[in-house]
Design brief:
Pfam families: Cpn10. Residues 1-17 have a biased composition (Basic and acidic residues). InterPro entries: Chaperonin_GroES, Chaperonin_GroES_sf, GroES-like_sf. The protein is mainly beta and 98 residues long. Helices cover 0% and strands 46% of the residues. It is built from no helices and nine strands. The protein has strands at 5-10, 17-18, 24-25, 36-43, 55-58, 64-68, 71-77, 81-87, 94-97. A seven-stranded antiparallel β-sheet has the order 6-7-1-4-5-8-9, with no helix packed on it. Strands 2-3 form a two-stranded antiparallel ribbon. It is elongated, with a radius of gyration of 15 Å.
């Protein structure tokens, strides 16, 4: 990886969702623009805020896809990462930091 690039493995959850009101939203429904989660697989030498293995939030519309060894990955710049999830050792829940 070069410079400020981050290679991530996107989470593919195409199952049905449920709204806060209890309505079931089918996987085929298109709605407002949503951010997606992914796991960092590799990073460039100038990446400072993200580590390999971190779970990051990014915009799936602004991405470059690459196929390596039959697996689809997404190539991002570090500035395209919106948030990084950090595991909390206390309760086992996930918190966010920017």
């Amino acid at each position: 990886m070069l410079h400020d690039r981050v290679l991530v493995d996107p989470e593919t959850d195409r199952s049905e969702r449920q709204s806060s009101a209890g309505l079931v939203i089918p996987a085929t429904a298109t709605g407002p623009k949503r951010l997606a989660w992914a796991t960092v697989v590799a990073k460039g030498e100038h990446v400072r805020q993200v580590a390999v293995g971190d779970r990051v939030l990014y915009d799936p519309e602004d991405r470059a896809e690459v196929d390596l060894g039959g697996t689809d990955y997404v190539l991002l710049r570090e500035r395209d990462v919106h948030a990084v999830a950090e595991r909390s050792d206390d309760a086992g829940t996930t918190g966010l930091y920017l």
